Amino acid sequence: MPKPPPVLVDIKFNPEGVARVLKTAFADRGSINLADPTDRTRDLREAEYALLWKPDADLFTRAPNLKVIFSGGAGVDHIIGMDGLPEIPIVRFVDRSLTTRMSEWVVMQCLMHLRGQYAHDIHQRQRQWAKLIAPEAAEVTVGVMGLGILGLDAVAKLKVMGFNVIGWSRTRKEIAGVETFDAGEMDSFLGKTDILVGLLPLTPETTGFYDSGLFKKLRSNGALGRPVFINAGRGKSQVEADIASAILNGILGGASLDVFEVEPLGPDNPLWELENVFITPHDAAVSEENALFRHVEMQIARFERGEPLQFVVDRAVGY
């Protein structure tokens, strides 16, 4: 029986880690790693499966016989809209570890804003013994925008911590014990929200979505005093100049950002120095290479047994 064609891999993150794991991944068929100089000019016409994160612009011309595309992360905005994208299934990366890590980050940020951690940090550096009286989590409403796999897990974890949690998605989701809102009810959702958590995918509709107009609709008289914006979805969904001005003007009381319009965040960006802003370098939930390749192996096996692929992207909505 002939050996099946190798999996094409074009991943623009952690090249050392990817190369290490590829030594043992896809044992039955092998791989073509475009980050490897010896593979860069290789004929790709034999490839049937491609694992991609921000792939080369000419990839689909070079690999015209693909049957399935696998994203190297939870998002697919780096693939959708590429020239020459074939009409074949695109599969998102869904992994328990990635989901758990994202929820850890979201809960941590909500708790830091709840308990005034930024002020505590300043007092510590100044050697000040300055007690703060924080509200209880139950007094604060966290509004989660985006109720996919990541959002649903974050909702569940935030509820365990005692927050009042509400959810918004383009089409309504039914979640036991959680008030949910759809696209037509956004203003009502925002008006009840003290801490806004953004976990939306990047689509044309969500580009530049978190702006000054949206921030002004958040609840401004809640237990925190001023609302807080937290984003770990996509950087191009936020208008960073509006975040900075909203904090300086007192519309927002703080922010936690893991994603940015341009990454890495430039050293002159005003967000670095704003009070009550926590910045992390897009590491809230990093794709772990072993889990990623196992996920692809499992989906290829399903596909070749004639079973339906899981986590297939709906191209009409972009996720």
UniProtKB/TrEMBL annotation:
This is Glyoxylate/hydroxypyruvate reductase A. Gene3D superfamilies: NAD(P)-binding Rossmann-like Domain. One of its GO terms (molecular function) is oxidoreductase activity. PANTHER family: 2-HACID_DH_C DOMAIN-CONTAINING PROTEIN, D-ISOMER SPECIFIC 2-HYDROXYACID DEHYDROGENASE NAD-BINDING DOMAIN-CONTAINING PROTEIN. CDD domains: GDH_like_2. It comes from the Bacteria. The keyword Ribosomal protein does not apply. It comes from Rhizobium hidalgonense. Keywords: NAD, Oxidoreductase. Pfam families: 2-Hacid_dh_C (PF02826). Residues 108-282 form the D-isomer specific 2-hydroxyacid dehydrogenase NAD-binding domain. InterPro entries: D-isomer_DH_NAD-bd, NAD(P)-bd_dom_sf.
